Amino acid sequence: MAMAAASSSASFLRPSVRRPHNKPRISCSSETLTPRRSPDENIREEAHRLSISSVDPRTPLFSAKYVPFNASPNSTESYSLDEIVYRSSSGALLDVQHDMDALRQLTGAQWRDLFDSRVGKTTWPYGSGVWSKKEWVLPEIDTDDIVSAFEGNSNLFWAERYGKQFLGMSDLWVKHCGISHTGSFKDLGMTVLVSQVNRLRKLNRPVVGVGCASTGDTSAALSAYCAAAGIPSIVFLPANKISIAQLVQPIANGAFVLSIDTDFDGCMKLIREVTSELPIYLANSLNSLRLEGQKTAAVEILQQFDWEVPDWVIVPGGNLGNIYAFYKGFKMCKELGLVDRIPRLVCAQAANANPLYLHYKSGWKDFKAVKAGTTFASAIQIGDPVSIDRAVFALQSCDGIVEEATEEELMDAMAQADSTGMFICPHTGVALTALNKLRNSEVIGPADRTVVVSTAHGLKFTQSKIEYHSKLIPDMACKFANPPVNVKADFGSVMDVLKNYLNKAPRF
Ligand SMILES: Cc1ncc(COP(=O)(O)O)c(C=O)c1O
Ligand SMILES: N[C@@H](CCOP(=O)(O)O)C(=O)O
């Protein structure tokens, strides 16, 4: 039954992943394997051939457009995705709205089967975790215009030991969005944005380059995808406020890097002004295209649980696009019948940069931006998040919660997680602290299926780990520091040190 649904769903889609009937990918009936394409054909060309050969006249044309975010049902304002527009006529945020009636022509089961059928392949562009959901992302883009590093499909890690030892939990998972092409979840959104820019340039729209303000990860993703497509990228970075690993990424990828003597919010203000004057396309998540890619991480989590819905998903928040992206991904899965409910979301902020937390604690009264203080979670050192309205909407719609983490809490949580075999970034430490607090208050139960979203690779933040394990952080006990032991190069000294360690070592 499921197989029948899968094949009938595929026949409705254009472009289709179906292979020509006379050309199976692998012939099992003989000893020889038949390659699905000849050596002189690349995977783009192959995708082109396959889609041409399987066009179905009944194909519904899925489509999407920009509309004002959370607009009244009577609003008729909308823009083509081929327009260069970031705000509505009243200055509000925009959202990408899909033709849900067209998408409903497939049942939830058919969508599930279609998405599942694309995982783990190299079929262009569906080998990407983002583009495997193309019909829900940018349905109308030509696959030839897509710029992809086969991002997504990231590991969902069962945090068995961390959950059991530190939280008394049996069903704790970490979605490693940072184990990715440029080392953060930003790849998910950037493949979409840069692909659309690629299309706009082919349509001769005035786009000479793509620009962003960044705390490190957005600029890394932007510069890599632009470099792959041969598009100039320009990045505004707050001077001395991002890690060395993040700074070197856009430099290495050939971006034009401006190191500006301000904070992220200052850079954001400048890039908005600049992109309204010059034909530079804005790549921050103010641009709602980005969130279309980022929302696929939510779909992916459901897929990885065989479409069972977790109870909680915890996301570290800064500029606040991602929390809305997760909400949107889950919501679409519910609206299109892939699942019957959505999880509760928790947004976790650093206490030194906590405007959303303060807003939540005030009972969602008037929002006030803050001056963000220094935090080891430097990528979320943001005081005036552009997506505040999106975040509030998402959290209110799913009975969500906002938590905060002090510097000591987030560094201790990171060290504890690392001691169980992870190597997480400080932002994930913020999310784990939120979980810790919600477990202590028993809001999250011991058997609740909980997913913590890990947003960047720990290797980008080794300096903070070095300072922690060297106990070099002023006013921080660094309780879980594990510094190396200096020992003389003789057998006796090494043996003494080892015996001492083995006498005291914890028994695992
Ligand atoms: C590593 C990391 N985690 C979390 C975030 C927060 O995401 P958002 O700005 O979408 O809230 C960012 C960027 O802001 C980030 O780079
Ligand atoms: N952490 C971000 C800050 C900018 O966020 P964006 O999602 O609006 O681009 C970064 O890495 O720059």
Describe the structure.
With 508 residues, this protein is α/β, with parallel strands linked by helices. The protein folds into 2 domains: 60-184 and 287-507, Rossmann fold; 208-278, Rossmann fold (3-Layer(aba) Sandwich), CATH 3.40.50.1100. The protein contains 19 helices and 13 strands. The strands form 3 sheets. A 6-stranded mixed β-sheet has the order 4-5-13-10-11-12, sandwiched between helices. Helix 12 (296-304) packs across helix 13 (321-335). The radius of gyration is 24 Å and the shape is globular. Bound molecules: pyridoxal-5'-phosphate and ligand LJ64HWYM. One of its GO terms (molecular function) is threonine synthase activity.
Which terms would index this structure?
single chain, 508 residues, alpha/beta, Rossmann fold, 2 domains, six-stranded mixed beta sheet, four-stranded parallel beta sheet, 19 helices, 12% strand, globular, disordered N terminus, binds pyridoxal-5'-phosphate, binds the ligand N[C@@H](CCOP(=O)(O)O)C(=O)O
Secondary structure layout:
Elements: H1 2-11, H2 43-53, E1 64-68, E2 79-80, E3 94-98, H3 100-103, H4 108-118, H5 134-137, E4 156-158, H6 160-167, E5 172-176, H7 186-202, E6 209-213, H8 217-229, E7 233-238, H9 244-252, E8 256-260, H10 264-277, E9 280-282, H11 289-294, H12 296-304, E10 312-316, H13 321-335, E11 344-350, H14 355-361, H15 388-397, E12 401-405, H16 407-418, H17 426-440, E13 450-454, H18 462-469, H19 491-504
Parallel strand pairs: 5-13, 6-7, 6-9, 7-8, 10-11, 10-13, 11-12
Antiparallel strand pairs: 1-2, 1-3, 4-5
Helix pairs in contact: 1-4, 7-8, 8-9, 12-13, 13-15, 16-17
The structure holds pyridoxal-5'-phosphate and the ligand N[C@@H](CCOP(=O)(O)O)C(=O)O.
